[in-house]
């Protein structure tokens, strides 16, 4: 690692330039807003940046904080999008400004002056909201006392967060408080990086750390501070930290393999722990042995009887679990919101047991809730993201907080997530998508996506003249519910089955689809049948627009619908609801040779998708990794 | 004659009410009906063929008009007309061996007869048939006046040969009708045995451990798969249920009863599963002359998915499904919309579907088509009872079964409709 590091030091400014300010980039940005162009150039030379920048302390970090190589790639990628959709660029940069504590601080600082401009420019969309709900608002509770005077509000927000993180993980070596505040801030950032990196491993030790006051924080140089003897060493060290942390993060962030249900020993182990009693389906589909295939309908009564015995399970969580199980709550957003509301309840009623710390115990508690929910119904990727967010929030709780304060912080975090990432995100998507609807359009949608429904209704409210084709498929027939709601609002609708989609596609001008998750290779993971609809639309040269909130983006990749999926109740296949005349399979379901496969999701290849509309703007499917990266920075590293 | 009329009316009713399911049953019943029409037709002494053609056409037009989407009816009518022409030709040729009569309906035949008065009956029949068709290598060769050897048995007119020989013996007046009825009987036989003939080829196309996907139900497919199973092939079948008729359930049940490992999936899961499938085998409603397929609804989607994953898309079609027409806008013109009640519960949505309420036009339309059009480029192979064919060859195969004169039938029928 050392040779690499030193090499980096040499090429440091250049790399930085490549990473964030490629020759192509500044002019483009300059055309969007001139003040920004100045900054990057100035920040190229650290000294001048120090002079000019609002937050010198932050900027002094910059020479060492080199974006790791992968960033370069993704950044260039990112830039390609920028050219496509300017509002999005603006936003994501501002996002960066908000929450990048460490390695990209230079960017942050350099951008911060222009932030105002940015948010104004994209005022129609999410960024505004974002800016208003910047972590600073909640986190000011800690203390901003030691912030350098010149620091801008924005940078302040970011660094405050960093400060908060520090006590969690850094060793509390009390040292000279008289150190330059800039230096202190550097330390703080470095510590934050370390925290992010070692969050998992160090959680225990951190918990036992002495609670230090906010004032002492900047002075507390972390353990590594002993290493830095002179400026260059500091630089080297910081670079090391700056480098390594994201690398480690990267490793950690690679989605860990999911439970494979054909691994009998692990399944047995899991069963011992399980709350929900599952019995396996008799005729398991061979191809899907790696997925859970349990009898449906048997668990519910069993769980109901256990209601009062389940000591550790919070009633709210329990209720949500049952609702998942019975299918009363479905749809990615609804499930996620329900889960978070339940967690909120649970946090509200939580009290730290004696001899335990809130951070560790609550995390464990949440984990047990999550595993219970998984037993009820496998998590969707979006819920995985949400849970990650919550756990991260818990882990990053400052130890200074009292229990009630910590709980309040968490609850407001949960509310913020629901509000920002789901409710407002939907509104932003609607705003974007409505611009794509013209008079006389025939819009096709599949299944029942809450966002698409909002888009259609909003476009109708705007007085646009269009027709909707609702395509539906068995066994869920969610389209009928959507159809009902649309017709009630006075939209002109056509209803048909997925089989007839190629007959109806000729008259369709746009296809709007919802998604359960968007994977980082551009694959859209959604209700089964979406792929068929997208494929037919592609064959008929009809643009396919996928509407999906950014919190549903996931760094997993998937090529087919088989390696990971969810299996619904096979009974639903053999029985056709409302059609008693279809009874060919009565008495045959238990035949050994007959397998009923009820897939719930499928993966739509990215080549069928013209555009993904998300709260960050409208992007091509190739830019999904950028959103994933930005999102992760914003919410998981912060 | 009133007897036939009643039969025809009965059949018309059935067609109109869509009481007859499946193109095979329709084809068979049409052929049987036409057979009785022919047998009841009183033929004049001269120009018998024309009279027969006339009466068959008259009935045929009405049948086609009763259900223009059921192409099998038109196909069979055309086949019968073709048979009459062929029989007439062979008889004429036989007669011409003795006296050069020109009592045939087709003027091309006159020309032929004049030119080559001394050729054998079969040779004349073949030669005159050739004039009805676009030129091909075979017909070019047949034109060579070297008929000393045994006459060729052309692939299409295999049955006409035997009859043409026997034609010499008896008088033409009785013979024509009799021959035609014989030939129609053979046609009926062909139609009813087409499944077996197609199924015989199953082992050539299905290998061990194959994974086959099909949608909906088709008797041809069932027999095809079962034939392979009987030959000790072990393979697995995915059946898409084929909403809204759910015939796939029926097929799955039949397959399970015969011991084939079967997985029933929803239609929407086709794209997800097709990547694990080796071959798609489906039945057809009709095969058009361009190699396009009118198939149960949903198959276009399956064909596209199969193309995406480079999975062979094989269509099984008996000869009665080969239609000599070229499709124009088949998604609409050769389609049939069924009742919305199959998709939606009227009780729930009655207020939206009501034309009478509000501004007149209902807010809600329900589209429930019966057929899909699969363009020829999506089809890998046709398996008919005469073997496997490329989509691009279908026009030629079809030309063997129909005479060009009869294609007009449809036009007249539709204009009269």
Alpha-carbon Rg of chain A, integer? 26 Å
Please report which band the strand proportion of chain A falls in: under 5%, 5-15%, 15-25%, 25-35%, 35-45% or over 45%: 5-15%
Class computed from helices, strands and strand pairing of chain A: alpha/beta
Unreliable segments of 5+ consecutive residues of chain B: 101-119, 144-170, 411-417
Percent strand of chain B: 5-15%
Order of helices and strands of chain B: HHHHHHHHHHEHEHEHEEEHEHHEEEEHH
Helix content of chain B: 40-55%
Mean pLDDT of chain A: 69
- In whole angstroms, the N-to-C terminal distance of chain B is 24 Å
Radius of gyration of chain B over alpha carbons? 24 Å
User: What characterizes the major β-sheet of chain B?
Assistant: 7 strands, mixed
Annotation, overall tally of beta strands of chain B: 11
Q: How many DSSP H or I helices of chain A?
A: 28
Name the pair of protein chains with the most residues at their interface, and give those residue counts.
A-B, 57 and 54 residues
Biased composition (Basic and acidic residues) (chain B): 160-171
Pfam families (chain B): IF-2B (PF01008)
Protein name (chain B): Translation initiation factor eIF2B subunit beta
Subcellular location (chain B): Cytoplasm, Cytosol
Please, could you describe this protein's structure?
The complex is a heterodimer of chains A (638) and B (417). Chain A has 638 residues and is of the alpha/beta class. Chain A contains 28 helices and twelve strands. Chain A has helices at residues 2-10, 12-20, 25-32, 34-44, 46-52, 56-61, 69-84, 86-99, 105-111, 115-121, 126-132, 136-139, 153-169, 181-208, 231-253, 264-273, 299-305, 315-326, 332-348, 358-376, 381-395, 403-434, 450-461, 478-488, 501-504, 530-539, 571-574, 624-635, and strands spanning 441-446, 466-472, 492-497, 510-514, 517-519, 524-527, 544-547, 553-554, 594-597, 601-604, 611-614, 617-619. In chain A, the strands form two sheets. Chain A has a seven-stranded mixed β-sheet, sandwiched between helices. A four-stranded mixed β-sheet of chain A has the order 8-5-6-10, with helices on both faces. The longest helix of chain A has 32 residues, at 403-434. The model of chain A is unreliable at 1-178 and 199-246 (pLDDT under 50). With 417 residues, chain B is an alpha/beta fold. Chain B has two domains: 2-192, no CATH class; 195-335 and 370-415, Rossmann fold, CATH 3.40.50. Helices cover 52% and strands 11% of the residues of chain B. Chain B has 18 helices and eleven strands. Chain B has helices at residues 2-16, 23-40, 48-66, 71-98, 107-115, 121-132, 137-143, 158-167, 172-199, 202-205, 219-230, 247-257, 270-274, 299-308, 330-333, 346-353, 394-401, 408-416; strands at 211-215, 236-240, 262-265, 279-283, 286-287, 293-296, 313-316, 364-367, 371-374, 381-384, 387-389. Chain B has a seven-stranded mixed β-sheet. The two termini of chain B are 24 Å apart. Residues 101-119, 144-170 and 411-417 of chain B have low confidence and may be disordered. At the A-B interface, helix 24, strand 3, helix 25, helix 26 and strand 9 of A face helix 12, strand 3, helix 13, helix 14 and helix 16 of B. Chain B: InterPro entries: eIF2B_beta_subunit (IPR051855), IF-2B-related (IPR000649), IF_2B-like_C (IPR042529), NagB/RpiA_transferase-like (IPR037171). Chain B: Pfam families: IF-2B.
């Amino acid at each position: 690692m050392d040779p690499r590091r030193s090499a980096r030091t040499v090429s440091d400014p250049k790399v930085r330039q490549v990473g964030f300010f490629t020759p192509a980039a500044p002019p483009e940005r300059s055309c969007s807003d001139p003040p920004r162009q100045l900054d990057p150039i100035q920040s190229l030379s650290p000294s001048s940046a120090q002079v000019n920048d609002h937050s010198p302390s932050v900027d002094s970090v910059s020479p060492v904080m080199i974006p790791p190589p992968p960033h370069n790639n993704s950044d260039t990628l990112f830039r390609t999008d920028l050219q496509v959709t300017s509002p999005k660029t603006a936003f994501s940069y501002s996002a960066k400004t908000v929450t990048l504590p460490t390695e990209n601080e230079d960017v942050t600082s350099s951008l911060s002056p222009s932030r105002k401009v940015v948010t104004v420019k994209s005022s129609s969309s999410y960024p505004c909201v974002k800016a208003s709900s910047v972590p600073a608002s909640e986190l000011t509770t800690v203390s901003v006392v030691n912030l350098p005077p010149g620091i801008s509000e924005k940078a302040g927000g970011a660094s405050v967060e960093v400060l908060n993180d520090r006590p969690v993980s850094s060793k509390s070596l009390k040292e000279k408080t008289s150190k330059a505040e800039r230096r202190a801030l550097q330390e703080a950032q470095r510590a934050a990086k370390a925290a992010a990196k070692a969050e998992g491993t160090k959680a225990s030790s951190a918990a036992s750390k002495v609670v230090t006051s906010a004032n002492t924080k900047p002075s507390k140089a972390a353990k590594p501070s002993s290493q830095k003897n002179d400026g260059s060493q500091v630089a080297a060290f910081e670079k090391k930290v700056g480098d390594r942390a994201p690398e480690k993060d990267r490793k950690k962030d690679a989605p860990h393999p999911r439970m494979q249900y054909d691994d009998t020993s692990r399944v047995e182990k899991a069963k011992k722990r399980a709350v929900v009693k599952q019995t396996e389906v008799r005729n398991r589909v061979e191809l899907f042995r790696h997925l859970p295939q349990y009898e449906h309908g048997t668990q519910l009564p069993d769980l109901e009887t256990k209601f009062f015995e389940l000591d550790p399970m919070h009633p709210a969580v329990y209720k949500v679990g049952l609702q998942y199980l019975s299918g009363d709550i479905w749809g990615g957003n609804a499930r996620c919101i329900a889960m978070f509301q339940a967690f909120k309840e649970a946090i509200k009623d939580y009290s730290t047991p004696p001899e335990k710390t809130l951070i560790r115990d609550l995390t464990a508690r949440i984990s047990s809730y999550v595993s219970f929910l998984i037993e009820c119904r496998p998590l969707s990727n979006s819920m995985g993201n949400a849970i990650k967010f919550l756990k991260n929030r818990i882990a990053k709780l400052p130890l200074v907080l009292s229990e009630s304060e910590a709980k309040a912080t968490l609850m407001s975090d949960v509310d913020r997530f629901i509000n920002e990432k789901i409710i407002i995100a939907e509104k932003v998507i609607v705003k974007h998508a409505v611009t794509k609807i013209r008079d006389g359009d025939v819009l096709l949608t599949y299944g029942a996506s809450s966002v698409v429904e909002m888009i259609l209704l909003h476009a109708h409210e705007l007085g646009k003249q269009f027709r909707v084709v609702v395509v539906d498929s068995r066994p869920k027939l969610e389209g009928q519910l959507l159809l009902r709601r649309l017709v009630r609002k006075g939209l002109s609708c056509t209803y048909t089955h997925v089989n007839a989609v190629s007959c109806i596609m000729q008259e369709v001008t746009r296809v709007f689809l919802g998604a359960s998750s968007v994977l980082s290779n551009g694959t859209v993971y959604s209700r089964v049948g979406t792929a068929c609809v997208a494929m037919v639309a592609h064959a008929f040269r009809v643009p396919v627009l996928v509407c999906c909130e950014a919190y549903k983006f996931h760094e997993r990749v998937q090529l087919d619908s088989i390696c990971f999926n969810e299996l619904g109740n096979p009974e639903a296949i053999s029985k056709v609801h409302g059609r008693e005349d279809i009874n060919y399979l009565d008495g045959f379901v238990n035949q050994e040779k007959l397998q009923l496969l009820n897939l719930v999701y499928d993966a739509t290849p990215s080549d069928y998708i013209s555009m993904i509309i998300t709260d960050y703007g409208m992007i091509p499917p190739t830019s999904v990794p950028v959103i994933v990266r930005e999102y992760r920075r914003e919410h998981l590293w912060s | 004659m009133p007897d036939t009329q009643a039969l025809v009316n009965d059949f018309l009713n059935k067609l109109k009410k869509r009481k007859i399911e499946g193109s095979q049953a329709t084809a068979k019943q049409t052929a049987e009906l036409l057979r009785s029409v022919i047998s009841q037709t009183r033929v004049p002494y001269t120009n018998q063929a024309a009279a027969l053609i006339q009466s068959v056409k008259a009935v045929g037009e009405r049948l086609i008009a009763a259900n223009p989407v059921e192409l099998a009816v038109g196909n069979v009518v055309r086949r019968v007309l073709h048979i009459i022409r062929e029989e007439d030709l062979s008889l004429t040729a036989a007669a011409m061996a003795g006296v050069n009569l020109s009592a045939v309906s087709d003027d091309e035949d006159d020309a032929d007869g004049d030119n080559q008065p001394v050729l054998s009956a079969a040779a004349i029949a073949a030669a005159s048939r050739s004039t009805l068709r676009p030129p091909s290598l075979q017909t070019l060769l047949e034109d060579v006046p070297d008929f000393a050897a045994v006459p060729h048995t052309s692939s299409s007119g295999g049955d006409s040969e035997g009859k043409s020989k026997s034609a010499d013996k008896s008088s033409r007046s009785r013979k024509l009708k009799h021959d035609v009825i014989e030939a129609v009987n053979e046609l009926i036989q062909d139609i009813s045995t087409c499944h077996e003939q197609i199924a015989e080829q199953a082992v050539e196309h299905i290998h061990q451990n194959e994974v086959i996907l099909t949608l909906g139900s088709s008797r041809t497919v069932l027999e095809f798969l079962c034939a392979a199973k009987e030959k000790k092939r072990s393979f697995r079948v995915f059946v898409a249920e084929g909403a809204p008729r759910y015939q796939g359930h029926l097929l799955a049940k039949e397959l399970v009863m015969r011991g084939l490992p079967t997985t029933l999936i929803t239609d929407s899961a086709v794209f997800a599963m097709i990547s694990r499938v080796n071959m798609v085998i489906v039945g057809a409603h009709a095969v058009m002359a361009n190699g396009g397929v009118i198939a149960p609804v949903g198959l276009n989607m399956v064909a596209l998915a199969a193309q995406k994953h480079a999975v062979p898309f094989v269509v099984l079609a008996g000869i009665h499904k080969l239609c000599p027409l070229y499709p124009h806008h088949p998604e609409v013109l050769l389609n049939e919309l069924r009742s919305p009640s199959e998709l939606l519960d009227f009780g729930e949505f009655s207020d939206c579907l009501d034309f009478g309420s509000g501004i007149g036009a209902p807010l809600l339309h329900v589209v429930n088509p019966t057929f899909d059009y699969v363009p020829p480029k999506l089809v890998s192979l046709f398996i008919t009872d005469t073997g496997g064919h490329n989509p691009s060859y279908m026009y030629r195969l079809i030309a063997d079964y129909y005479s060009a004169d009869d294609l007009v039938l449809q036009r007249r029928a539709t204009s009269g409709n």
